[in-house]
Design brief:
By secondary structure, this protein is mostly helical. The protein has helices at about 15-45, 45-50, 70-100, 105-145, 155-170, 175-185, 190-195, 195-210, 215-255. The protein has one domain. Helices cover about 75% and strands about 0% of the residues.
Amino acid sequence: MPRRVKAVSHDDQLSLVEHLDELRSRIIVCAVVFALALALCFWQNHVLLEIAGGPLPGDHKKLITFGITEPFTTTITVAAYGAIILAMPIVLYQLYAYILPAFSPNERRSVLPILLLFPFLFFAGIAFAYFAVMPAAVKFLLNFNDNQFNIQVRARDYYSFFSSTMLAGALVFQLPLAILAVVRLGIVRIDQLTSNRRYAYLIIAIIAAALPGVDPVSMIIEMVPLLVLFELSILLAKVSERGRRRGAVAEPTAQE
């Protein structure tokens, strides 16, 4: 049995074996939490399936399946995605607790707010994809040439599309963290971001076109938060840069 995971401070000197033991213990905790979340989601799978089918119109609520095993395997897949979302806060806590001791107290004060943005942006992206992107995409796709086709919605295909859309929404909402990271690492300067906005907007349009939801309406809906997040990223990068400069000036003064 793994030892109880305890917090490690910045000044603790751990051997490689101790680091690996701590990592193993935290992975086991994450696995146990995921297993419990999966059991809960499978127990309440009818609720998850109802939520996932929310964007579908009334005449397509009853999804079709092919094969005797498809209802079970599809339900397990949906339950697994739900378990990932439920377990995400604990998984993120274990990740933060493992990597934060590597930072000094000053570095931790600047990095911790950025890390705490991850779960907020993750769930915000899922909410946006569910309430904004999915209804528009489903409406367009189900009504495209509907007089030429007998449109039937297969459960496995729909839930795969639904899951990829949720994941895409969660990932694109990490744009502020990505920009903050490259700025803090010195890969890109803030003035380069502000002076090349038109290229950034073009890249954002390409990303929006590549995301699930292939119709123009969905593309525009997905572009709006990306543009807002890009501008917010620049603002956060400027604030972070000012804070780091003030900290760099104050540290020699405190040492004196």
